[in-house]
Amino acid sequence: MPTAISGFSKLSKSEKIEWLLDTYFTDKDAARTLVKKYWNSDEKLQKLHEEFIENTITNYYLPLGVAPNFLINDTLYAIPMAIEESSVVAAASKAAKFWLNRGGFKAEVISTEKIGQVHFTYDGEFSALKSFFETIKPKLISSTSDITKNMERRGGGIVNIELKDKSDDLDHYYQLHATFETLDAMGANFINSCLEQFADTLKSEAQRSLEGQLDVIMSILSNYVPNCLVRAEVSCPVSDLKSKDIRNPELFAKKFKQAVDIAQVEPYRAVTHNKGAMNGIDAVVLATGNDFRAVEAGVHAYAAKDGKYSSLTQCSVEDDTFKFWIEIPLALGTVGGLTSLHPLVKFSLEMLGKPSAKELMEIVAVAGLAQNFGAVKSLTTTGIQEGHMKMHLMNILNQLEATPKEKEHVIEHFKTNVVTHGAVVEIIENLRS
Ligand code: MEV
User: How much is the pTM?
Assistant: First the structure.
């Protein structure tokens, strides 16, 4: 059994790798070669990536793909997507093309409020705490002036601070619940710095002028941002849905709506339905250097806001019009964080026309809607495996270490045959025998 190591972070990169090889690997040369193969030969670039996190030993690649032909609010975008799942970019591109000639996507930001909280306990009367809070509220705000001045100059800053009585949920538990406008920044550092200053001011003012014990537990932004909301939509006359894959548009619209309605009422389906939307959302969030964990956590909380986990998208078929839309909370940034640091993030943002945070919210919501449209369209027509396995074919061929010639032959064969793992193995074995 390996023994624990102390001071690992202080070792050099090579020392870390050698320790790992000695401790966990049997074929050390192969493992060392692999790790080094993924280093970038441009030393400056390599160092940049190493310094994003602690204990970096190498780089972990994901493909950066592009889904072109997205018409959003009458502007044409090519959307960058960082993702490993074979069929996602193809499905996004297909959905973009489908809607290109049917009016494209319409998107609008509904609200942009971010939230942070100081959680604390207090053992006195709420009425005393309330009047204390009203007295110190201007001080809470003025104490952050060094942190907020740049943001305020650009039109953002602290929107409000409220005192919340949570003592019915947990003994002696109260909050400062603060709202912020962070403009083009995701704003995590800004919000957390403001909150920690609120906490310091709250503590010192309580010591001076509040009877009873007040203890700050923690100060942190919330990744649940139900008032940082964006909506994206597609619509067209039902008859316009007719296409190569949709022979009977009325039947398609009916079944598609039924599938979305099922996701509205059935949490097991809703989770998978929403996962399909997140395929698009996460891929763009990642490509643009945003925090996909924050987005995931906030979006799923929003999907459960009415007390039951439900679909993020909705569909209506009324007056011969098919309408499909998504409404999601997204706290995104196009300045700060990785946006000016990671060269491929800069590249992705330039590809999107250097969007504001609001424009990026619209683009990401559209990517989610398009992906969900593609998945539900396949599910209610051909089934998902046909397209998925076609895209997965290359992964199977690479697993089998197929030569370029073998690949060419197999790809040709599966243009007219159903792809299964077994069928690919069989044809490769036949070719090789
Ligand atoms: C696979 O990554 C996503 C789907 O399962 C989504 C869905 O079922 O709607 C195809």
Answer: 0.93
